[in-house]
Design a protein that fits this description.
Shape: globular
Mean pLDDT: 83
Strand content: under 5%
Radius of gyration: 16 Å
Helix content: 40-55%
Number of helices: 10
Order of helices and strands: HHHHHHHHHH
Low-confidence stretches: 78-83
Distance between the termini: 30 Å
Largest sheet: none
């Protein structure tokens, strides 16, 4: 599955993909939380977010095509770190004045989420470890009864990584 392609699709198309998943787990007699916790079957929205954040981490690790370094440069400001948020490898955030919805569903809309991860998450040496930490965080939120767990790492929800 090309998560990047799905991630950038219009919300109406993403809802159709999410609906297929929901119907499938409903036919199995499972709730979304049960499917995730018992069978490691996360909702597509969560998979898309973890996937695209994995791509950002791949850029930070220097393991992607060099064009991503131009597309996603380092931030010259350490503002987030100085106020106690984020980590030492901040990506440059783009300020948007037009087409906010399109921006939010792009890779550029995820830089704020990535920049606010705790240092130990950013220090992950592999994409797999990084994505495992994100999935484990969503799993803990689901287990605790947080109703927005499936939207973990969505730009539309204010969420900071929890220890």
């Amino acid at each position: 599955m090309n998560i990047g392609g799905y991630f950038h699709a219009a919300a109406s198309l993403l809802e159709k993909i999410d609906d297929v998943h929901d119907r499938f787990i409903h036919e199995l007699g499972l709730s979304s939380a049960e499917a995730f916790l018992k069978y490691n079957l996360p909702p597509p929205k969560l998979r898309r977010n973890v996937g695209i954040l994995g791509l950002l981490h791949k850029r930070v690790l220097g393991k992607c095509h060099p064009s991503f370094e131009v597309l996603l440069p380092w931030s010259s400001s350490r503002f987030s770190v100085s106020r106690g948020l984020g980590h030492s490898k901040q990506l440059y955030g783009i300020e948007v004045t037009h087409h906010q919805a399109m921006f939010n569903r792009s890779i550029f809309g995820m830089d704020d989420i990535y920049n606010n991860f705790l240092q130990y998450v950013e220090d992950s040496l592999t994409i797999s470890t990084f994505q495992s930490l994100l999935t484990r965080n969503a799993r803990r939120r689901c287990e605790s009864g947080d109703i927005s767990w499936a939207s973990s790492f969505c730009r539309t929800f204010e969420h900071h990584f929890e220890d």
